[in-house]
Task: structure prediction
Amino acid sequence: MSDAVSPKPRRREFWMILALCAAPVIGSYALYYLWKPSSLRNYGELLDPAQIEAKAGSSAAPLAPLKGRWVLIMVDSADCAPACQAKLWQMRQVRLTQGKEMERVERAWLVDDGGTPSAEVLREYAGTVVVKSPSPALLGLFTAPASARDHLYLIDPLGNLMMRFPREADPQRIRKDLGHLLKVSRIG
Result:
């Protein structure tokens, strides 16, 4: 009787081990390239990240103090019609609903018509950073199918404009998107 193992079982073991090691890699590539999810998890539309400081240059200076925080930002006129006030209210409520994480979130309003918002609106939405007469270069970063005034935007702590929420957005869904980002991100 011989103690030697025949080459066939060893070859079979080798191929089984190789298949076991290659299966996760092959599976991940197959899922990435072949499987498309039927729905997305996020509510807001992901934008190609635009580094605000790099694209707007020195005209982004009014937003510099907000760097390092998540920023909900909107573009609107100084007279602040009801749709504008609804966006200000949404930004405030979404920030407040983040609980202990709300200190990581700031709010900003780019006043695109050169006017000055009323004292009543400023008092009611105190804490919102108001940027009067932002440069065309800065305003140009806030793209939209119709008008930048229709949307809320999100800037990440690194200063990238990265998400746009739809017109008349659902605050609960914005809260979920932001909450998820705050949970998975330790920056800001």
Q: What stands out?
A: The mean pLDDT is 91. The first helix runs from residue 7 to 34. Residues 70 and 181 are 9 Å apart (CA to CA).
